[in-house]
DNA sequence: GCACCGCTTCCGTTGAATGGGACGCTCCCA
DNA sequence: TGGGAGCGTCCCATTCAACGGAAGCGGTGC
């Protein structure tokens, strides 16, 4: 901007401001927001007021700032995941009712699985896969199911990430995981997230057999009915794929 | 901005850009986006690129623009409705299963009910209450349930809206609706949205008996078990309120 | 081959964005 | 009770980032 700036644009600043809100919640003091976003207090104050004028933020008197309803509305009525969510919800509900387990839906974003929707079982084991949460590909069954069914090119780019620290060992391990996942048709991760749970996920494939999403469940470690879970998930995943194709 | 501008700030422009996406979907041509947002093509192009650099938009080559995953993520992990949604989901699922009807959750924003969550029954009648959709207070059972349990001050400000065109007639009609809703403890609207449906909604009340949300169902017109629906909704609403209070 | 249309890049102009400084408030501790 | 710390808010001269018209480029249809 004008005047000796840190070299970033207004857009940068706005993104920094929006990103500054911590994962869990909601209300933040103006001064803290300024510090978190690395902006001078004055600048943060002005931007917050401007954003609040549009309802993208909600600035309570006293400098208490929280995300605005209008921002939520704008994003959620045009979200890139809207069609996916609509197609998937009925099947996720079926899974939830029939298997009585936590169900989640994820897409691939960078090298993470981004969880788009989640239904949790009552009295369930903890499910870390929060909505809008992320998990690295190789530490989540959802991530593995997604990555295992991608372009060769993307996969090798992904695997290159692991080459840095330790040569090829880590790379080979992940490659093996992906290969198993691909050939089995589902990903299974035992106790990575939470030592007492299994994660199981299947890909939702498009017409070219690329994973556009993953459908998964998180079940207690003692649960032994894996054989029953996988076909149910795969059936649901096909149903989702069909509805996506229709639209 | 710099140079003879239309008098709006960068923030204004960004909001115009984000708001320009039509309700239904997702991909928009750059030129069309520019026109919808009322920005010069060049400006729209530059802003889109900047926003795309941060993942807030997704600019495909050829000028095809869609909302970005990162924006969705940012908003949905810090959303003002997050706690509400988490508290409400289990109860909404219960309602959906027990009553086998469409369920929706709304909050008041301005003079509209803003629908925050929705579960739809399989093979159900059409439910216009889309997620992130809006309906005016007086044309939705959710809106009535919300407005009937607000400050006197807010209510009278709301009612003043109707004074303009036709004197007091419309105002009195709405006032009556609100009063009925308040004393009954639930709102009921027959065939306003869709001639073949009922809308029924109850408020989720905080400790001061103010509605922070509404819980509603949309049922086919022939459905006669109103007496069974209302207590179930009220019970669920109390459950939601209790979980909100705990947190 | 020409004309059209849309995305992209370039570049001189300029006023909007910037942020240090000052003010006023409240709260807390001496 | 008085002083000081911490906070949000307002002011305003400086200046560089944002602006957008114009030209370039690639594709498509006549």
Structure overview:
The structure is a homodimer of 247-residue chains. Helices cover 47% and strands 21% of the residues of chain A. Chain A is of the alpha+beta class. Chain A has 2 domains: 10-74, Winged helix-like DNA-binding domain superfamily/Winged helix DNA-binding domain (Arc Repressor Mutant, subunit A), CATH 1.10.10.10; 79-246, GAF domain (Beta-Lactamase, 2-Layer Sandwich), CATH 3.30.450. In chain A, the strands form 2 sheets. Chain A has a 6-stranded antiparallel sheet with strand order 6-5-4-9-8-7, with helices on both faces. The relative contact order of chain A is 0.11. The model of chain A has no long low-confidence stretch (mean pLDDT 88). The structure holds a DNA duplex (30 and 30 nucleotides).
List keywords for this structure.
homodimer; 247 residues; alpha+beta; Arc Repressor Mutant, subunit A; Beta-Lactamase; six-stranded antiparallel sheet; three-stranded antiparallel sheet; 47% helix; globular; DNA-binding
Tell me the layout of helices and strands.
Two copies of one chain form a homodimer.
Chain A: H1 10-19, E1 28-29, H2 30-37, H3 41-53, E2 57-60, E3 64-67, H4 69-77, H5 82-99, E4 102-109, E5 112-119, E6 134-136, H6 141-148, H7 152-160, H8 163-166, H9 169-184, E7 187-190, E8 197-205, E9 211-220, H10 226-246
Antiparallel strand pairs in A: 1-3, 2-3, 4-5, 4-9, 5-6, 7-8, 8-9
Helix pairs in contact in A: 1-2, 2-3, 5-10, 6-9
The first copy, chain A, binds a DNA duplex (30 and 30 nucleotides) through helix 3.
